[in-house]
Amino acid sequence: MGLLRTILLRLLTTAITLFGVAVIVFFVIRVVPGNPIAMMLPPGATDEDIARLTALYGLDKSIPAQFWIWGAGVLQGDFGTSITARQPVLAMVLARLPATLELSVLALLIAVLVGGAAALTGTRLRQTKVEGGIDIAGGMALSVPDFLWGLLLILAFGVLMPIFHISGRVTPSLDLPFVTNFYLVESLIRLRLDLTLDLLSHMLLPALSLAIPLAAIIAQLLKQSLKETMHLDYVTLARTHGYSEARVIWREALPNALLPTLTLVGVQFTFLIGGTVIIERLFSYEGLGNMAIDAVINRDLPLIQGIVILFAVIFTGVNLVVDLMYAALNPRLRHG
Amino acid sequence: MTYLSVRDLTVRLKDGPALLRSVSLDVAAGEVRGLVGESGAGKSMIGKAILGILPRAVEVVSGQIVLDGVDLLTLPPAERRVRVGATCALIPQDPLTALNPSRRIGPQMTDRLVDILGWSRANAAARVQDLLAEVQIVDPARVLRQYPHELSGGMRQRILIASAFAAEPRLIVADEPTTALDVTVQKQILKLIAGMQARHGTALLFVTHDLGVVSKVCQSLSVLYAGKVVEDAAVRAFFAGPKHPYSAALLAATPKYTDPDAGLQPVPADVIAAVRAEVGHG
Ligand SMILES: Nc1ncnc2c1ncn2[C@@H]1O[C@H](COP(=O)(O)OP(=O)(O)O)[C@@H](O)[C@H]1O
Ligand SMILES: [Mg+2]
């Protein structure tokens, strides 16, 4: 009964959230000091020049009036023009989005695989030295933030043992046949595995920096959840059926242990996406985050607004996917 | 012929007190043996030891668990697991927690037949459907597609009973299978288990704290107190006159099994003290 209602309610709250985000960003970046027009003009510019340009970008109007004009544009798909690049914000932002999405999803995949494997191994070998080792490794992974992992990885695999690229997204001298900006996906579809390898060699270290803390969180949460599940009656009953310990963990405990982990991993994934801002800067990776930092440095107000709105849309989307997965995994929700 | 023979089994908490002390009991093929004793006596622990599901905090110190001529405690773990899975089954105490909430009933019942006994999926599905019909579940095909939360406690216990009989085991351990149920459902379930046991000729170790139940479904019984068997008797002989004072007191404390309205008498304190001294406890 409630599906349509749920979706409508969801869309409504999403709209309100995005509006709130838009208002806050819009006003905050106009209150902090720094004049974007003065910054883009050469030192000798006259006050007259500045006033003319300021009027051109509509920055001479009151802030609510500016918001009104901008908001009306956004509703028609026009996010304004970047002050520094003099290009439409929407096109610029959408062109960078694939790079950040590919990086975030690669990091998420690594975190889920590594964290999941650690949780399953730790559960299978619980109360042994192996579990102790996993706990210690997890504690270490969590006590260092992602950007420090980035520096450590650059030092280890970029400087001491230079086996991975530490800068950029792809080797520029390569012949790139791509028609979309989803380079990694497209290289796989075109079966250009040479390009896939080059891309991965660039993405691995930034992705690892983002993935290491999340992998540790997944390992801890999932292992705890698995261990609690392993004591439940239906797991004990399944044991009497003659199944191996590995199968009992995988088939009986894991599906139930996933549920409580999933929600938290969703929240943590949005933090990971937030982490791309600094990590992309660190690895000169041409994604949204890197662009965001440039935009802030240049006080490129329309660009900042566009990027922040896009991040907010991504976060909302992640939360929606998590909720849908939760419903799909939980039979109680699946059947009303 | 003896199918299960537990010999001098001693089990303890790791670095802790003994939970079972030199327990011996036999279950003949096709026999129903009651295992009675107050809560905490170690009844479930015996069942868990037989089925190989002792908690990790607990270890077997000594003794034998001979199943069909083979001492399970001497087998490698994987072999023991498969042998027990193929020949024994458990009817658990609480039907509300004994089914996996995220899996459909069908696979929960057929997996063992397919994965451990090597049946085809189709044969296994047909088999469990027949069994569900045998435990008087209406529309078995539909129930096999349902999730546990869609079914009542009584339904779930019927499913668990059917599931226990699915692999045609030689021995079933029923651990207080009616305790968690409504009084009105208890009788039906008890009857159901007794009927299934008789039809399939399965040996049954029936754990209960209710002597009235023992008198109805068991041929023999073992009385457990503080991890020790204090009496091992045929049901007829036991109800005619228990040999051990604790058994006698337990029998006296049970509302007369023919008269459920009779009052409950506590076991007299002097008897308790005497038994505790005898089994070396406290
Ligand atoms: N997982 C466990 N860890 C430690 N002690 C336990 C555990 N399970 C049961 N015990 C103890 O073992 C004894 C026997 O328990 P149990 O066999 O469950 O009793 P019963 O089934 O007769 O009520 C009790 O004293 C109980 O406290
Ligand atoms: Mg018990």
Polypeptide structure, described:
- The complex is a heterodimer of chains A (336) and B (282).
- Chain A is mainly alpha-helical and 336 residues long.
- Chain A has two domains: 2-75, no CATH class; 93-334, MetI-like fold (Orthogonal Bundle), CATH 1.10.3720.10.
- Chain A has helices at residues 3-31, 36-40, 47-56, 63-75, 89-124, 129-142, 146-160, 183-189, 193-229, 233-239, 245-282, 288-297, 301-329, 331-334.
- In chain A, helix 8 crosses helix 9 and helix 10 packs across helix 11 (245-282).
- The longest helix of chain A is centred in the last third of the chain and has 38 residues, at 245-282.
- The model of chain A has no long low-confidence stretch (mean pLDDT 92).
- Chain B is α/β, with parallel strands linked by helices and 282 residues long.
- Chain B has one domain (2-97, 171-279): Rossmann fold (3-Layer(aba) Sandwich).
- Chain B is 41% helix and 24% strand.
- Chain B is built from eleven helices and ten strands.
- Chain B has helices at 43-51, 77-87, 105-116, 121-134, 140-144, 153-166, 183-200, 211-217, 235-240, 245-253, 269-278; strands at residues 2-13, 18-28, 32-36, 58-67, 70-71, 88-91, 171-175, 203-207, 220-225, 228-234.
- A six-stranded mixed β-sheet of chain B has the order 6-7-8-3-9-10, with helices on both faces. A four-stranded antiparallel β-sheet of chain B has the order 2-1-4-5, with helices on one face.
- In chain B, helix 3 packs across helix 4 (121-134), helix 4 (121-134) packs across helix 6 and helix 6 packs parallel to helix 7 (183-200).
- Chain B is globular and about 60 Å long.
- Classes of the chains: A mainly alpha (336), B alpha/beta (282).
- The A-B interface holds A 127, 232-244, 247, 251-252, 255-256, 259, 329-332, 335 and B 51-53, 56, 78, 81-86, 88-90, 92, 94, 97-103, 111-112, 115-116, 147, 149-150, 160.
- Bound molecules: adenosine-5'-diphosphate and magnesium ion (MG).
- Magnesium ion is lined by residues 43-44, 175-176 of chain B.
- Magnesium ion binds at residues 43-44, 175-176 of chain B.
